[in-house]
Every structure is written in structure tokens, then in C-alpha cells.
Amino acid sequence: MVNIILLGPPGAGKGTQAKRLEEARGMVQLSTGDMLKEAIAKGTELGKRVEGIMARGELVTDDIVIGLIEAKMKDRARGGFIFDGFPRTLKQADALGDLLARTGETLDAVIEMQVDDAALVARITGRFTCGNCGAVYHDLTRPTKVPGVCDVCGSTNLKRRADDTEETLKTRLMEYYKKTSPLIGYYHAKGQLSAVDGLADAGVVASAIAKVLDKA
Ligand code: ADP
Ligand code: ADP
Ligand code: ZN
């Protein structure tokens, strides 16, 4: 079993690659962003608490996301977990280390998806997803085959995120550089970091990740 973290700024391609890994290797994607968005959509107490924070592009508190991850990790994943958008702070990284240690599991690779800020604006403003199956699309780089219809499940419920604006991206990027980018040094020091070029075509990125996993 292989457990990995996909690390990178908003729009780096974490969700896209996580979905590919689920299909190719039977791994299970754990996206705290998706869990939080689900809570908002359902109108839960948690959803109400985080809605404003997420709309502004700020990070929600560590305890919230650690709790979400802990609950999901109770169901063991045969192919291993893909942590997507978690951890985002050093406190979350330590908590993940503790959770894995408690279940006797390992963290096998941390994949840093390297991109540049200019590309992220285009990535974020063109992004839309399937509200039914979570498939990730892009107006220019990955449009649906039939306009308005999900390639994977046929749903016409295609959605854009409220926080995917150029303005909010600035806050999200600043949060990334301030709070999340220190994880690059942290995992490098632990000898667990591998970098891939996130600006390459999605298939090329997938091959680069596969190479890392086959060595892990
Ligand atoms: P992206 O795919 O653009 O990186 P996500 O879907 O992962 O964004 O996250 C959306 C929002 O959810 C973040 O801007 C933040 O407000 C919140 N969020 C998601 N994961 C975390 C986390 N691990 N810690 C704190 N906040 C988080
Ligand atoms: P993240 O989860 O890191 O925020 P996503 O996987 O949601 O990123 O990707 C952001 C946007 O960029 C989506 O619209 C996606 O279709 C597109 N995208 C992802 N990977 C690539 C790539 N390698 N080349 C071009 N566009 C990509
Ligand atoms: Zn779909």
C-alpha cells in the first residue's frame, strides 16, 4: 500500500492527478477541499462555519481539517491514500504523521507539483467540475467532448467554484506561500520529497508521478 501527498498551490493539478491515480491504481483520494465544499452544499453546522473563510480564500483552522481526515482514514484504502490539499500547514503535517503512525502506516512519497503563478490564473479561471462525479475540466486545456455534458458520467450538472476568481486566487496564493510552502522544506528534510513539472501536459505529469510511485 502506498500513501502519498500531492503538494502544490491552487490550480497546480492536484485534483486532476488524484482522479487519474484513483482510476489507474485503485488509490483513494482524500481532498479536504472537497469535504469542506460538501459540508457547505449540505448546509451542515461545519459548512456554515467555513463558508465565509473559504469564499475569501483563507485557510480554515487546522483542527477542522485534521478531524475530517481522521474520520475518513478509518476506512482503510486498499490501494493507499492520496492526500490532496492536505496537509497545508506544519501542524497538519505533524498530525498526519501521528495518524499514520497510529495505524502502522507509512507516508511513501510527497509529490511537489511545480507551477508558476502566471499559469495558475489561467488554470483557475478556466476550471469547472462535474457536480455529480467530481471530474475536473478546463475551458481550454480539458473541455468536455460534448459541451455541457460530463465525459465520465453524462451529468449536465457542471459547476464553477465561487472562489475561482482572479481576486480570490491572490489570497489563496499568499496563504500557500506563507503557510503551506514550508512543507516543501519539511518533507525534503525527511527525504520524502519529489518534484514534478506541473506545467507539462496532464498525461506527462501523470507519467512523472507514476515513476515516483514505482520507486516508492
Ligand atoms: P485548490 O484545489 O484550489 O487547491 P481546495 O479545493 O483544496 O483548493 O481548497 C479550497 C479551500 O478549502 C481552501 O482555499 C481553504 O479555504 C479550504 N481548505 C481545503 N483544505 C484545507 C486544509 N488542509 N487546511 C485549511 N483549509 C483548507
Ligand atoms: P488543484 O486541485 O491543484 O487546484 P486542478 O486539478 O483542479 O488543480 O486543476 C486546475 C485546472 O487546471 C483545472 O481546470 C484542470 O482541468 C486544469 N489542469 C490540471 N492539470 C493540467 C495540466 N497538466 N495542463 C493543463 N491544464 C491542467
Ligand atoms: Zn461526471
Topology of this structure?
Layout: E1 4-7, H1 14-25, E2 28-31, H2 32-42, H3 45-56, H4 62-72, E3 81-84, H5 90-102, E4 109-114, H6 117-125, E5 127-130, E6 136-138, E7 158-159, H7 166-180, H8 182-189, E8 193-197, H9 202-215
Parallel strand pairs: 1-3, 1-4, 2-3, 4-8
Antiparallel strand pairs: 5-6, 5-7
Helix pairs in contact: 2-3, 4-5
The chain binds adenosine-5'-diphosphate (2 copies) and zinc ion.
How far apart are the termini? 10 Å
**Whole-number radius of gyration?**
16 Å
Structural class: alpha/beta
Write out the distinct hetero groups bound to the structure.
adenosine-5'-diphosphate, zinc ion
How are the strands of the biggest sheet laid out side by side? 2-3-1-4-8
Q: Residue-averaged pLDDT, rounded?
A: 96
The beta-strand count equals 8
Q: Show unreliable segments.
A: none
What portion of residues belong to β-strands? Answer: 5-15%
- The helix content, as a percent range, equals 40-55%
Oligomer: single chain
Order of helices and strands: EHEHHHEHEHEEEHHEH
Enumerate how many helices there are, as a single number. 9
Shape: globular
Describe the sheet with the most strands.
Answer: 5 strands, parallel
